[in-house]
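Researcher: We're teaching a course module on how sequence relates to structure. For the next exercise, students receive a sequence and then see the predicted structure as tokens, so they can try to spot secondary structure elements on their own. Here is the exercise chain.
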Amino acid sequence: MWAGCLGAGAVAVGLAAMKGEDGPAVDRELFGLVNRGAGPGADAGFAAITELGSFYASGAAAATLFAAGRRGPAVRALSAAGAAWLLLQGLKRVANRPRPADEDPDGVRLLIARPAGSSWPSSHPAVLTSFSRVGARELGIGRLGRSALAALDLSVGASRVALGVHYPSDVLSGLLLGRAVARVWPRSRPS
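Model: And here is the predicted structure for the students to work with:
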């Protein structure tokens, strides 16, 4: 049930931002506030963490868990991240939302190479969220650890806006979809 609510919320956010009465203007305004930057240190920090949301980073984390003898959690977390990535690639093709720099090439600070594909939904926060949620569950990570992982998910999401490649609604939808995938992902069998 929660997964369906999260997925529906993600779609509602996307539709409101792309086609709603005030949604597109609000989304662009929020984007401008974050994308204008907070100085070179913040830009460097966002550039450094943004790829933690890539499927490659999830693969590296899974390989580390696998090498440490945590094979089940590694496989389950990576497969959830892969499912999230595939789901979002399909949604990107359907939505086909232009990226911020495509809509306003002169008004956007694009601080990394323009990613392929459309803007909605943002796959980096979805991939990281699905990996971190399933991994934390499988490893029995407590509340404090899960909170730290959620902060990392949010930081990667914020980096996508600050670096100029996504609107805030793209990121919020990605975070919600990542959580939805994690909620429906099968749990390990008790030993």
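Model: If you want an answer key for the exercise: The domain at 2-184 is CATH 1.20.144 (Vanadium-containing Chloroperoxidase; domain 1). Residues 62 and 74 are 5 Å apart (CA to CA).
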